[in-house]
Amino acid sequence: MKPFATIQELKQQLEAKKISAQELLSYYINRFKTYDNQIQSALEIFEQDSIQQASSAVGQLAGIPGIIKDNIAQNDRMLTCASRILQDFNVPYDATAIKRLKQVGAPLLGRANMDEFAMGSSTETSAFFKTRNPWNLEHVPGGSSGGSAAAVAAGLVPWALGSETGGSVRQPAAFCGIVGFKPTYGLISRYGLVAYGSSLDQIGIFAHTVYDVATICSVIAGHDERDSTSLSTAQKDYTQSLDGRLPDGLRIGVIKSALYAQGMDQEVIGAVEQTIAQYEKLGAKISYIDLPSLDYSAAAYFIISRAEAASNLARFDGIRYGARAVGAKNLKELYNKTRYEGFGDEVKARIMLGNYVLSAGHADEFYNNAKKVQRLIRAELASTFNDVDILLMPTHPAPAFKIGAFDKNKLQMDLQDYFTCPMNMSGNPALSLPCGMSKQGLPIGVQLIAPHVAEELMFKVAHAYQVVTDWHMQHPMNFK
Amino acid sequence: MIRDVLMAKITKEEVIKIARMSALELPEHEIEPMMQRLEEVLTYAECVKQVAAEHEELQSNAAVNVFREDTVIPVDYRAILKRAPEQQDNFFVVPSIIDSSTSSES
Prior knowledge:
The complex is a heterodimer of chains A (about 475) and B (about 110).
Chain A: H1 7-15, H2 21-39, E1 42-45, H3 48-54, E2 66-69, E3 77-78, E4 90-91, H4 96-103, E5 108-112, H5 146-153, E6 159-164, H6 170-176, E7 179-182, E8 202-207, H7 210-220, E9 251-255, H8 256-259, H9 266-281, E10 285-289, H10 293-312, H11 331-342, H12 345-358, H13 364-384, E11 390-394, H14 410-414, H15 421-426, E12 430-437, E13 443-449, H16 455-468
Parallel strand pairs in A: 2-5, 2-6, 9-10, 9-11
Antiparallel strand pairs in A: 1-5, 3-4, 6-8, 7-8, 7-12, 11-13, 12-13
Helix pairs in contact in A: 10-12, 10-13
Chain B: H1 2-7, H2 12-21, H3 28-54, H4 77-82, E1 87-88, E2 91-92
Antiparallel strand pairs in B: 1-2
């Protein structure tokens, strides 16, 4: 058994009866038991019996386990969002994505660690513990879906679900050397995903290969009446178009203002330049463009995400579910104390920021202006696709930083979202794939961005790269 | 320095007001650090204000409402009440809304 087998490979092995679904599940549960103490990617690994019971259907993902970020509801499991305010909360329903995975027999192994309420870029704000990067335990795996990314990168599980609001799947995927995919806004149902920034949130997918990501996408994407922001797109097979070739005459637009931005790590630049050269060899036409949106996406994203977060987190009040403070003399005190004690510092700060930008006297200047700028970003991204078919840019300015590096520098931490948040704002689908390795032995990722609902094209272009390169087959030494 | 100019814009009173709106306790020693955190947003606010001003034709996102039929999908209320911090019969139990021994505040 290879720990880093892809979903494709595992399906072949299962079909050839070289291994049974039960053996496979035991194998991965054992991988967690043996190796997860080093990286602490999981908040919980479920009992094997209960896993099999929950996903007893016989379907295309039978026997192929995944781990789920702990802000996506799995019926009768805990759902903590890595927060004390939900630390004992058991959720009584399945997210739509989970329901669809169970319908095809996918065993769901456990709950992955994350930044508290998805607010962070390093998985350092989890109320429980920090997850470490399997490539170097002193470095962060990225965030907020760091647990999901680390688990896949360490070969503890072949796929995982995460979520994005500002880049929380693509950035950890890049930091951990795997593929991380954010769908078009509305493609994957948000029903059962704990809301952070409702106009930005999407469930995302981690795996070693684009083909695997497309496989999972085929299961969970598609219209859901329980999510009023769900697109009308029907479920479909996203692997069909993956023949390893680029579409004829593909035009790739490299965002040079990102690639050569001030402060970019030289090795990241080098790896992305090599990726561009590789695509040229494959027959793509490369052009270099600017994306002015980059200059103001972070600012608009900051304001909108905090505002929506403040609204969304108002529901955690100690009344109907979650933790409740002890000793409150009246209702108001109950609210204030419950939330003060239950939320971590970063979450409290973002709620305050959000309410500040929404408050009377500020809403126009801050929030409304940010929404106008969001429109501009969306229009700008759409217009780039008049001249090119796919955009390419780095996922991150530098490889994974050290744990604690930005403890005293919130601004620097906020900038982690710089290259990823524009696509959350505009709703465009985007994907990060491994394209290099730093001399220090840390992965480097490159990002592809497509027009709305052009996932098939994006997967095709990304897949073609993986057919002729082997970055996605590099794995951290200590987990082999 | 521009920082000093921006700092003047967030007052202690405002921070306390926001904490009240956020239903968050805010101990005295946390007010100053919170003021500094809130201050972050001012630079971003300046940025979006400028960009919005440069593109006068921009309007805020036009919301499109998506409707569905108002049909009830029954849910087992016991499953929900089971998860409540405190419950009795069919109710969530809460402390009194108005406590006469403390001064009321809006």
